[in-house]
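Collaboration report, partner site 2.

Our partner group contributed sequences for two proteins of shared interest, and the home lab folded both. The records are reproduced in the order in which they were received, starting with the first partner submission.
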Amino acid sequence: MHLPKRRQLLSLPPLLGLLSCLAPLGAPAGEAWPARPVHIVVAYPAGGVSDAMARLLGERLAGLLGVAVVVENKAGASGAIAVDAVAKSAPDGYTLCFTSSSPLTLSPYLGRLPYRPDKDLAPVVQVMSSPVLLLATPATPVHDFRELLAQARRQPATLRWATAGQASLGHIMLAQLKAAAQVEITHVPYKGGGQQMTDALSGQFEVLSTNASPAVLQQIQAGRLRPLAVGASRRLEALPQVPTLAELGYPAANLASQFGLLAPAQTPPAVLQRINQAVNQVLRMPEVGERMKAGGNLPAGGTEADFARLLASEAQANAHIIAAAGIQAD
């Protein structure tokens, strides 16, 4: 899918209208939901943290709902391909999207999309918050965040910070940090996490931002990467010694990825509520929480309205950040 650049920001955050999607028209057509398999479309490639969590969620939902839950990956265009596919699906509760918030709260400000977040989608439930780790690679000797800033001030623009891509959440974090700390750091955008991690371990750049995951934590435990800070609401159980960026004095850069389930707009309210209740039940299972936390992720949950408000707030914040930093898509 080609997403051309847009030079002007939208006038209003596109997610504000999501609150109005929480009571769509319509009713289940002649059958009690669920009467057949439910499909969860993951917006990112197989093997990543989002894929692992979606499959864990699908396994537990199948047990609760009594039908198969089929998980498929439909990666591309920063999540927009999967979101568009679900937006165009029948609004019957049998096709859901598991995605980060970025295709809803970030992408609309950077390019023309084939869907309207406020018209075509209904928030179902927030599943997890995935903290963003700031890590030092073998290319630099720094061991904490303040050393990193000190080096950036001594040698402007020589530190290289790798992210998952132009206009990614890591790029937003970097822009916020550069503005607040008044430092110059060179952005190195990648197109995906695999090559980024390979290059990190071989010291091709000094720092990287990446979502917490079991694989990343293994590299930290092995001493190959050094954690400097984390974007999260609180310190991670797996890395209790690592401060959040808010603790370090940079709350605007203290960003984490929010993941959740979306349904097509006009999905019957009773179906949305049933899915929401089932997911919240899964998230309360001790083994699910333990597996999420082992990878550095935090279970979420809550109501449909809670998720809609979170998305609307994030969209509004992103609009201001993108405008101030002059961030554009590739």
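Second partner submission, folded after the first:
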Amino acid sequence: MKKIVTLIPSATEIVAFLGKQDLIVGKSHECDYPRNLEKIVKLTSPKINVDGTSGEIHKQINEILENSLSVYKVNINELKKLEPDVVITQAHCEVCAVSFSEVEEIVSKHLNEKTKIISLQPNTLDEVFDDIKRVGDGLNLNDENVKKLINSLKERIKNIELKSFHQKPKKVACIEWIDPLMAAGNWIPEMVKISGGNDVFGKSGKDSHWIKFNELKESDPEIIIFLPCGYNIEKTKNEVETLLKKNNQWKNLRAFKNKNIYIVDGNQFFNRPGPRLVESIEIFAEIIHPKIFQFNHYKSGWINF
């Protein structure tokens, strides 16, 4: 039996989705789903104060990255004790988890030369599915079983797409960071489209990017959805309240006037490129076309601001 270390939450969720959660011996400090992971060793910790505001966190991260340092620490001694056969990490974002180059260096210096590294780097939904298959292949799982699991996710997405296709698309802005403002990219615009919306800023498969409030004002979307990376609903709500107090112009936006500003759990759903992106699409669908879709994610996955 292989011993697995997962250094990013999406990797933990993918391994669990494939039915091999019991093989996980080490995880990142952010791995909190599925719920029964308490006894698994935490191998990472942040070098920043994650309890600060989005502006404070942004400043801290910039200072670290400007000095070519990692945002996270790895407990190498604990990792060595675990002697994993497989380490699953990511090469998508320097801010999301331990950098791929650092993982490579740690594995080559401190672990068995046969230790396998599986790196996840998705930018689109199809690439997320490819990553799930890559993990399945890396764990030598039955290929047909893995394909069936992936197809079950694709089927749920297709059902949403078929229903939303007949609805009039709504203009949607997805905000991935609050201070400064960042528009969500990668798989998010594609998910908005599947749910019956048109993402006014994001480009499918392209990185998230900074925007100015004036750009938001000019596009004047029908719906604004806040989904900051690493933030739950409560923390996002507090920051959005502060944001609107600082800038009264938000109240002139169509989405504000029509009470179409929404807050979702970006941490648990949208910013984890794994199986629960399907639930994320369901949340989008409930928000964008509430008369058509009811998946019961209200309050647990999203709220109306």
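Feedback sent to the partner group on the second submission included the following. The radius of gyration is 20 Å. The chain has two domains: 4-147, 165-304.
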